[in-house]
């Protein structure tokens, strides 16, 4: 909803360095002010930082739906959020992981076959149609968990570009 998404955008703006740190630490829970405080604070703060709230909400909604579908392992609906020419690359080495939805499908078909797969959102930064998520992926087939920094570009309600920085850790 607009309140939650606005809260995320404003909260993320003030904690952006937590998301790009090379040393990944557990996300700290914070006590959120009441909804009444944010009704006036969020719109003025978003304007102050030049954040386009309507664009943020749209991109945020798409990426949040994508995360929910990932955790539900709903392959059909998950892939429906991808543009036919979605471009997925590694932020680490620049390699192309997939240059289309068709190339991406087998990767997620295999990943979603694992009933223990889960993605925990540790943080989110949103600006216009770009969403940066810091995630922890558990239930990987290797028995490891992964810290992931994912940069999503959303256009026309579809994910057009994904850039991933992925680091696996053995348990």
Keywords for this entry:
171 residues, alpha+beta, Nuclear Transport Factor 2, Chain: A, 6-stranded mixed β-sheet, 6 helices, 6 strands, 41% helix, globular, disordered N terminus, SnoaL-like domain-containing protein, SnoaL-like, NTF2-like_dom_sf
What does this structure look like?
This protein is α+β, with helices and mostly antiparallel strands and 171 residues long. It has one domain: Nuclear Transport Factor 2, Chain: A (Roll). It has six helices and six strands. The protein has a six-stranded mixed β-sheet with strand order 2-1-6-5-4-3. β1 and β2 form a beta hairpin.
Radius of gyration: 16 Å
Shape: globular
Weakly predicted, low-confidence segments: 1-56
SSE pattern: HHHHHEEHEEEE
Strand portion, in percent?
Answer: 25-35%
Rounded to the nearest angstrom, the distance between the terminal CA atoms is: 36 Å
What is the β-strand count?
6
Structure classification: alpha+beta
Number of helices: 6
- Number of domain units: 1
CATH architecture: Roll
CATH class: Alpha Beta
The profile of the biggest β sheet is: 6 strands, mixed
Helical content stands at 40-55%
| Neighbour order of strands in the largest sheet | 2-1-6-5-4-3
Output the CATH topology. Answer: Nuclear Transport Factor 2, Chain: A
Averaged pLDDT, please?
Answer: 77
